[in-house]
Amino acid sequence: MLSEMGLEVCGSDYSSSMLDVARKNLERRCKDIPLFQCDYRNLEQRFDAKFDAVVCLTTALPHMHTDEDLLLALRSMKNRLNKGGTLVLTQGTTHYTLSLPSIEVVVNREDFSRVFVKEQDERFQTIHVLDLFHSKTRMESARYDIVYRILLDDDYRRLLSEAGYKDIRVFGSYDMAAYDEKSTRLIVVANNE
Questions:
Q1: For strand 81-91 and strand 51-56, is the pairing parallel, antiparallel, or unpaired?
Q2: What pTM does this model have?
Q3: How far is CA 44 from CA 9, 37, 73, 164, in A?
Q4: Rounded to 5 degrees, what angle do the CA atoms 162, 127, 187 make?
C-alpha cells in the first residue's frame, strides 16, 4: 500500500520464511521492494540509511518479553529515523480484546479452520493456535503457541518516552479515533524530534 502511494519503501523481518512469503506476495503484485532479514533490535546492523518513517505492524513488538528488549528495539528504530521522522506501531491486543471469550474461531472455511484458545495473566497472553485441515484430501491438525507480552496504551507511552520519542499519540482505529477501553486496535504514532 505504501509503495502504491508513491513512497519509497523497504521491508525487514526476523524470519526468513516470512520474507519468502512477502517476496511471493510482492511478485504476484509486480512490486520490486527490497526485503532484508534482520532483528529490529539491531536495525543498524542491516540498514545504514535513515528513514522518514518506521512502521512495525500487527503485534510484532509484544514478542519481546522484557523492557530491556523492547527499549533496545524502540531505540534501534529511533536511530534509523530522520530527525522529525515518525514511528507507527499497530496491534490487535487492546483492553477490549483481552476481555473477549478465551476461545475464538478466527478462520472457518470449508477445508480449514483456525481456533485460538487464549490464556493470560497480568503480563503475558498465550495463544494456543489449533489449525484443523478438513478436506477430502487432507485430514489433520497442527498446534502451536504464541506468547505475547501484554502491552497497552500506557505501556507504550512509558516505553517510548524512555526511548526518547516525543509527541506520542495513541489511537483506537485507523480513522484515528482516540483509544479507549472499547477499541479493537491499538495504533501508536511517535516522533523522533
A1: parallel
A2: 0.91
A3: 17, 12, 11, 17
A4: 40
Q: How far apart are CA 156 and CA 93, in angstroms?
A: 12
- The cell numbers describing 90, all together, are 499497530
Q: Using the structure block, give the residue that is written with the C-alpha cell 518479553.
A: 65
Polymer length of the chain: 193
193 pLDDT band, cuts 50/70/90, is: confident
**Residue ranges of domains in the chain, CATH in brackets:** 3-94+149-192 (3.40.50.150), 96-148 (2.20.25)
Per residue in 143-180, pLDDT (tens digit) is 999 999 999 999 999 999 999 999 999 999 999 999 99
CA distance 41 to 76: 6
Of residues 69, 53, 29, the one with CA closest to residue 191: 53
The C-alpha cell at 150 is 501484554
Which amino acid type is present at position 89?
A: L
Are residues 90 and 60 in contact, defined by beta-carbon separation less than 8 angstroms? no
Segments in 29-152 forming alpha helices (H):
67-79, 95-98
For residue 86, give the nearest of 61, 55, 53, 57 by alpha carbon. 53
Calculate the alpha carbon distances from 38 to 14, 20, 34, 65, 82 in Å: 5, 14, 13, 18, 20
Helix (H) / strand (E) containing 160: helix 153-162
